[in-house]
Design goal:
It is built from 22 helices and eleven strands. The strands form three sheets. It has a four-stranded parallel β-sheet. Helix 14 packs across helix 15. By secondary structure, it is an alpha/beta fold. It binds iron/sulfur cluster (2 copies). One iron/sulfur cluster binds next to helix 2, helix 3, helix 5 and helix 6.
């Protein structure tokens, strides 16, 4: 992975035009120059020029959602999210990570048997820490907890976890495939919190005639660690995933998580391509990755049986990691046409929901404030259901709608097929 000093030329291409100011969700919420790409690049340049930058520097770098809106609009194509990731890595290399963050990342991303046991006990004890939300399917924290925050709506943990279910375990040793050998990359959001998306993915793929395998031993995609600046943990989990999937010789690897998809397609190359012997392996692995909506529309030509549009109105939220980083926006909308819902677009569907870049954990108040505009736009659309294609966005949107008293259901596109 490139070091921060290697981005100096990119940073110097910034002509301070300010185009990025008009699209940045953090600037829009905080209204300070330090919270847009131009301000952040100025700070990083100052650091590279030898200025000692303390906690405030770290705060501005940490409070970027890595949404990519600045990159998409920048006339000089400066990839600020990539530069921010490198700045976080540099900071961690110099100062280290807090012990609690290191422990949490290690436990959740590389689960040892003991961690799995502890997670299961915590799942059973959830009523001690959470109460049921009155109108939603989810839990409200009773008090402020690490990574959760006071009053945050979170999904009830999966019980059992998706990868531990007997019928999913059975799919790890599939003998026969159709014309394409397809594997499913699950990701943490589906495994620990929203297993119904995984179940729907398997169901829809099978309905479309695709026999899918679900390899055991797969782990987190690594983006939470990288977002926190922990490059070494990210490298380990990424390499582990490549090893697990290589054993199968899949033609395609499908994911139902926009963030995992972007990470597997693009970030793996960024992090691993300079590691000894990894360049070709990571290229081959990344070339097989497909978002489930992309796969169903572009390669399978998915069609549902004709149904009355009588279930209500659905709108669609574009995950940043799907639309901006993977260029996928038409496919999920095409699939929604196959659902029994009438489609109605919302204003600014690709405005960041506020979850990304770890902001939801480092500054929950900012994260949920960013989501306020999204909740307003959903409310104005008059939709009964919000569909999207990222488990992270689903968790954030459910919480945001709860905070702003908008009674719309939030689901993944595949759950409506
Ligand atoms: S849009 Fe690009 S060139 Fe213009 S200020 Fe922002 S980062 Fe700099
Ligand atoms: S990635 Fe998003 S939040 Fe970060 S500076 Fe760019 S527009 Fe702002």
């Amino acid at each position: 992975m490139k070091e921060l000093k290697d981005y100096r030329e990119d940073i110097e291409r910034c002509v301070r035009c300010g185009t990025c100011r008009s699209v940045c969700p953090t600037l829009d919420t905080v209204r300070r120059e330090s919270h847009c790409a131009r301000g952040r690049l100025t700070l990083i340049e100052a650091y590279l020029n030898g200025e000692e930058l303390g906690e405030r520097y770290l705060k501005y770098i940490k409070e970027c959602t890595l949404c990519g809106a600045c990159y998409s609009s920048c006339p000089n194509e400066i990839d600020t999210p990539e530069i921010i990731l490198s700045a976080r890595a540099e900071y961690v290399k110099r100062k280290g990570l807090p012990a609690l963050t290191t422990f949490t990342l290690k436990s959740l991303l590389e689960p040892a048997p003991l961690t799995k046991f502890a997670l299961k006990v915590a799942t059973k004890l959830k009523n001690l820490f959470f109460k049921n939300a009155p109108f939603e399917s989810g839990l409200l924290s009773r008090f402020s907890l690490p990574l959760v925050g006071d009053g945050r709506l979170v999904p009830a943990p999966a019980d059992p976890f998706f990868l531990d279910r007997a019928h999913i375990r059975a799919l790890s040793t599939r003998e026969d495939y159709g014309s394409l050998k397809v594997g499913f990359f699950v990701g943490c959001g589906i495994n620990y919190l929203l297993p119904s998306i995984g179940e729907s993915t398997i169901r829809v793929l099978e309905k479309a005639g695709i026999d899918v395998a679900v390899p055991q031993g797969q782990v987190c995609c690594g983006i939470p660690a990288l977002s926190m600046g922990d490059v070494e943990t990210a490298k380990r989990v990424m390499t582990r995933n490549i090893e697990v999937f290589e054993r199968y010789g899949f033609d395609r690897i499908v994911t139902s998580c926009a963030t995992c998809g972007h990470t597997l397609k693009d970030v793996f190359k960024l992090v691993l391509q300079d590691e000894p012997g990894m360049k070709e392996r990571v290229e081959e692995f990344a070339g097989k990755i497909r978002d489930v909506t992309e796969f169903l529309v572009d390669e399978v030509g998915y069609r549902a049986e004709k149904r009355e549009k009588s279930a209500g109105v659905v709108t669609y939220h574009d995950p940043c990691h799907l639309r901006r980083f993977q260029g996928i926006s038409e496919q999920p909308r095409r699939l929604l046409e196959e659902s029994p819902y009438e489609f109605r677009g919302m204003k600014n569907p690709c405005r960041c929901c506020g979850l990304g870049g770890g902001v939801s954990f480092t500054n929950y108040e900012l994260s949920i404030k960013i989501a306020e505009r999204k909740a307003e736009n959903i409310k104005k659309s008059g939709a009964d259901v919000v569909a999207t294609a990222c488990p992270g966005c689903i968790v954030q949107l459910k919480d945001a709608l709860h905070h702003h008293d908008v009674r719309a259901k939030v689901v993944h596109v595949v759950e409506l097929l």
